[in-house]
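Input record, target 12 of the design panel.
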């Protein structure tokens, strides 16, 4: 009987140790699963961030591709227009130099012993040609600049009757304000005097 009781105690002890071992193993497995879950969630966050950045890259790439393509067309058109203008100005410059050389070379003192009427006609013709060339091309040379627009605006202000003079000082405005309010002050004083006289006669 006593031996049987001891055997039961030993079996209970073994069962308790076995359960403790199982609990410990379950706890270790749970910790492992938690670490794996944290690792997976971290990896998921990294992948989501990577996906977001890739999407931003695609959007930015598409946006800048479209904008740069359009801008290149504009720049090429502007460059072509600028090149044409440079060529035009160069041609006008050469023409002006030629006319200036001809006009400056006109010297009536050198017409002695020559047909003065003929030389005069040639000189007048050269001056007229220079005048015509200048009138024809000067409008192509001039361009409206910001300072030109500002000057035109100032002229318009003067023409409209606006005073474009510098700002007045404090003393000027003090005198002006006193002059404007003087009639009102006199009227107020007169009213007070009348009221005072009326009340004193009662």
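The sequence produced for target 12 reads:
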């Amino acid at each position: 009987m006593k031996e049987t009781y001891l055997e039961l105690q030993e079996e209970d002890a073994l069962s308790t140790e076995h359960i403790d071992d199982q609990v410990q193993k379950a706890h270790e497995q749970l910790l492992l699963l938690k670490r794996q879950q944290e690792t997976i969630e971290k990896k998921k966050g990294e992948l989501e961030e990577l996906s977001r950045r890739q999407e931003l890259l695609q959007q930015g790439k598409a946006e800048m591709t479209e904008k740069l393509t359009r801008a290149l067309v504009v720049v090429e058109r502007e460059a072509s227009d600028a090149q044409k203008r440079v060529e035009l100005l160069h041609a006008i410059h050469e023409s002006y130099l030629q006319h200036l050389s001809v006009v400056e070379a006109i010297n009536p003192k050198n017409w002695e012993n020559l047909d003065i009427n003929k030389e005069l006609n040639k000189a007048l013709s050269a001056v007229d040609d220079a005048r015509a060339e200048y009138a024809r091309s000067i409008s192509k040379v001039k361009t409206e600049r910001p300072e030109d627009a500002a000057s035109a605006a100032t002229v318009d202000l003067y023409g409209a009757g606006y005073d474009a003079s510098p700002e007045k000082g404090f003393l000027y405005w003090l005198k002006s304000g006193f002059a404007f309010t003087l009639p009102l002050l006199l009227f107020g004083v007169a009213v007070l005097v009348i009221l005072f006289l009326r009340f004193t006669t009662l």
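Residues 152-166 have pLDDT under 50 and may be disordered.
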